[in-house]
Design goal:
Elements lengths: L1 H15 L4 E6 L9 H14 L4 E5 L3 E6 L2 E6 L6 E5 L3 E6 L6 H12 L3 E3 L2 H7 L2 H10 L7 E4 L5 H8 L5 E5 L8 E4 L2 H14 L5 E5 L5 E8 L2 E9 L16 E2 L4 H13 L4 E7 L10 E6 L5 H7 L3 H8 L21
Parallel strand pairs: 1-2, 1-6, 6-7
Antiparallel strand pairs: 3-4, 4-5, 8-11, 9-10, 9-11, 12-13, 12-15, 13-14, 15-16
Length: 342
């Protein structure tokens, strides 16, 4: 009986773990040191090894359309326009800043309305692209973060600072931004007022927040894939800077997480519907007993520094992970919550 049960369990697992087709939607960003196209090409190459056919398309030329009741993604930038069928057996990896343009975000909505699994979906991309909104979601899960206040008006920055109830220096962040851009150390009331005014002059619609400055020698980037921690790197603070982004010169090292850190990172990823996210945190003084302090979540985490430090085959591991259909997250349409009867 035991042998029969083991065989049945193995059969069930094999039924779940099977090759699929996938799309890599990327963005040709010359300022991204991670080399996005190189990462995408690596995914395509690793996919071939396990029988998963891949298709890459730059978001700048990507569009989707129905042909004979079948949905396709098109590469509108190719010399000879090509297309790729997307259906319930297709996974779409989003490696582009789709929230920059509504048309890019709407491509995700088109796919989600066809019940296509996106890594990550539009909700996740929009939540994590807004640092304050991310903070609200994490706060609902009672995850620890630096004390934060939103600057509601460019002329009321000092009022916001008073609400923060702390001392200088503090951290000012634009609500959007990545690669360490839009994170500024503020030392005085004068610099706070002038910085907010300059940012507002550059972009009247730019939102900013203020945070307690937590002085650390390093932060931690954790890759969470399919709800489970894949691994982590320690990112030392850059010399003569206060930031620790790899894009700014930080040299990462492999980092072993505590059970408590793993639990909280997986909880944070789940809170934002993240199927593959980079979770950033500051370690606590007693890492075994005190929870980490979360900084932000990245829905298109870089791979270059992580792979170099850990020597892990991240792309291959991710593709293999998603061979288990049980972790595919499909968005429910608003209409599906209503009973059509009556």
């Amino acid at each position: 009986m035991r042998v029969m049960m083991e065989r049945f369990s193995s059969y069930i697992q094999e039924a779940k773990d099977k090759p699929y087709r996938f799309v890599m939607i990327w963005y040709d960003d010359p300022e991204d040191p991670d080399d996005p196209e190189k990462t995408v090409d690596e995914f395509i190459s690793e996919g071939k090894k396990i029988g998963c056919e891949g298709f890459k398309v730059d978001i700048s030329g990507a569009y989707s359309d129905l042909v004979d009741d079948k949905r396709y993604i098109y590469d509108g930038l190719a010399e000879k326009e090509s297309r790729f069928l997307v259906d319930e057996d297709t996974l779409v990896f989003i490696r582009a800043p789709v929230t920059r343009r509504k048309s890019w975000s709407n491509l995700l909505t088109q796919l989600e309305r066809e019940d296509i699994c996106c890594v990550n979906n539009r909700l996740c991309m929009e939540v994590t692209s807004d640092k304050y909104r991310t903070g609200l979601v994490l706060a609902e899960q009672e995850l620890i973060q630096p004390k934060t206040v939103l600057v509601h008006n460019q002329d009321k920055a000092l009022v916001a600072f008073d609400r923060l109830d702390t001392k200088f220096p503090i951290i000012l962040k634009t609500l959007t931004g990545s690669l360490g851009i839009g994170v500024i150390k503020i030392d005085t009331e004068e610099s706070l007022s002038s910085t907010v005014q300059v940012l507002h002059k550059l972009d009247p619609d730019m939102g900013v927040l203020l945070q307690d400055m937590i002085k650390m020698k390093y932060d931690v980037r954790v890759h969470v894939v399919g709800g489970v921690v894949h691994g982590a790197i320690k990112r030392p603070v850059v010399e003569k800077d206060f930031r620790s982004n790899v894009s700014l010169g930080s040299i990462p090292e492999p980092h072993k997480l505590t059970d408590l850190e793993i639990e909280h990172c997986e909880q944070a990823a789940k809170a934002v519907d993240g199927l593959w996210v980079g979770v950033d945190f500051f370690p606590s003084t007693d890492r075994e007993k005190e929870p980490p302090i979360f900084v932000e979540i990245n829905s298109t985490p870089g791979t270059k520094g992580y792979k170099k430090a850990t020597k892990e085959n991240l792309c291959g591991d991710i593709l293999k992970k998603f061979m288990n259909r049980d972790i595919w997250l499909r968005s429910k349409l608003i209409g599906s919550i209503y009973d059509p009867v009556g």
